[in-house]
Design a protein that fits this description.
The protein is α+β, with helices and mostly antiparallel strands. It has five helices and ten strands, in the order αβαβαααββββββββ. It has one domain: Jelly Rolls. Strands 1, 2, 3, 4, 5, 8 and 10 form a seven-stranded mixed sheet that branches. A three-stranded antiparallel sheet has the order 7-6-9, with no helix packed on it. The N terminus is likely disordered.
């Protein structure tokens, strides 16, 4: 009975998260396992997040520069609307990591580790590796307006200790910018070069598809040596590019 109750509780916790409408049967396998969910959040909740979203506060002359606000800042300070505190708190719970692994069951790379029942979870910035085996984050990332055509980060691999990446796009209805989607790549002839490079050699990879930068759209994928991705070039615009970045990391590298 305890296991059944735990599953029900976990499902209820997910109902107001970005994974409420995520389905394992919708996982796409090319160029690597990933899932795209449109209208991921309840429309009212998404609208409230947009209307209370902190603005970009960087330099006025910044050009496609990233400004992150980690989950612990939303949780530990009173500077933000409570809806943001509730949102990031929900998305740093262990249920999120377990939900991603369940969605991609059968598609996880061999390098993805098992997470035992006694696995300890914590929020990055509040806990460290002495207190947790997995550190979670749900940070708001805002890319400054583009003064010139460009990308804040082209093709790359995420840090090798990351279990998964999930992006919820926070595009506003008045955003008329062009570009800014997520390009997904594959290796032309297998991994090569420095895998931890900020941007990979474009001669070694090819773009297979682009997930457009659309409001309330979720992109999620488990990390692996093949999970190549990068921001599509944005044309000059006065609009910023914003998303919530949800992730979980372990102390040791997966590849």
């Amino acid at each position: 009975m305890q296991d059944i109750n735990a599953n029900v509780t976990g499902q209820r916790l997910l109902e107001r998260t970005i994974f409420a409408h995520a389905r394992a049967e919708d996982v796409r396998t090319e160029p690597f396992p990933h899932l795209v969910v449109e209208n991921a959040l309840d429309a009212d909740l998404f609208a409230k997040l947009l209307s209370t979203r902190p603005p970009y506060c960087g330099d006025a002359d910044a050009d496609n520069l990233r400004a992150p606000t980690p989950a612990w800042v939303f949780i530990k300070t009173e500077l933000f609307d409570p809806i943001w505190t509730d949102f990031v708190t929900a998305h740093t719970r262990p249920d999120i990591t377990h939900a991603v692994r369940a969605l991609f069951k059968g598609h996880l790379a061999e390098t993805q580790p098992d997470l035992p029942d006694d696995c300890r979870f914590g929020v990055d910035g509040q806990a460290d590796w002495r207190a947790a085996d997995v550190l979670c984050d749900a940070r708001l990332e805002i890319i400054s307006p583009a003064l010139t055509a460009g990308s804040h980060r082209k093709a790359h691999l995420d840090t090798p200790n990351r279990l998964f990446t999930a992006l919820l796009y926070l595009r506003t209805p008045d955003d008329t910018s062009v570009g800014g989607g997520l390009n997904l790549f594959r290796w032309k002839s297998g991994p090569k070069g420095r895998l931890d490079a900020f941007e990979l050699d474009e001669n070694d990879i090819e773009c297979v598809t682009t997930v457009p930068y659309r409001e309330n759209t979720l992109v999620v994928f488990p990390n692996s040596v093949n999970a190549l991705h990068g921001c599509e070039v944005r044309q000059p615009t006065d609009h910023d590019r914003a998303y919530v970045f949800i992730t979980a990391e372990m102390q040791h590298d997966l590849f």
